[in-house]
Amino acid sequence: MWVRIDMQLKELIAYLDETLDVKAFRDASYNGLQVAGSDEVKKIATACTASLEAIDAAVEAGADTLIVHHGLFWKGADPRLVGNYYQRVKTLMDNNINLVAYHLPMDAHLEFGNNAFLAHILGGDVVDYVEPGKKDSIGMRVKLNEPLTVQEIVAILCHRLDTKISVLGNITEDMMIDDLAICSGSGSFLLDDDKCPSFQALVTGDVNEQTFHMANETGTVVFVCGHHASEQEAINLLGDHLAKKFKLKHFATHFAYEKAVPTFAADPDQ
Description:
Layout: E1 7-8, H1 9-19, E2 32-35, E3 40-41, E4 43-49, H2 52-61, E5 65-70, H3 83-94, E6 98-101, H4 104-108, H5 114-121, E7 124-129, E8 140-149, H6 150-161, E9 166-168, E10 176-183, H7 189-192, E11 201-204, H8 209-218, E12 221-224, H9 233-246, E13 249-252, H10 257-260
């Protein structure tokens, strides 16, 4: 029996553009193909960010296409290919690897998206987007099937995301939570811009200075997972889907960046 092991790049991009509904979003990212390489796709690699480490991993794995959430090219950003950006693009081109990026469409997708993944691992159902019916509002309102304590939520996020979690707000570890807002990456705006939040807790990647005060003053619990950690697993699930649907090989990267960052505190006895 003949089994397909490759596809045309343009076919892959067309499928992703339609599946992720790219046209529904006004995005700072240039979504879709960012660097052209092989016309045929046989083995994909997936990563959160098109870092040199991720690109090198794709080269080592023998991938011809790297699909990421954070690409290299952003509207309004410095377009010069110098320094480490030159090295990233050169490595891609020297190895004939396509770079494909999807930013906000990956945040908002109800099956493969970053926020939907976070809801799933916590045992929750997506009720709607934070602005009902508007997928371009990105964040999601989530109802947990069973209430969880702060400590239980922390344990799940630490384990499934392989990261360290910070928790903001006036909390106790046995506080019960079942009503969440979820916005991966830089999602603290959901609390920072809402003087009277209607959700008990927010799960996000990173926060602003204002978030600390809003959490304390509104009684909202904020789980801070790390930007990269909150967004690296869903892209791998998308890769699994593509591999299964199109009979491709798939290499999924995993980098526990936030977990590996050392933290320091002054010795209280000094």
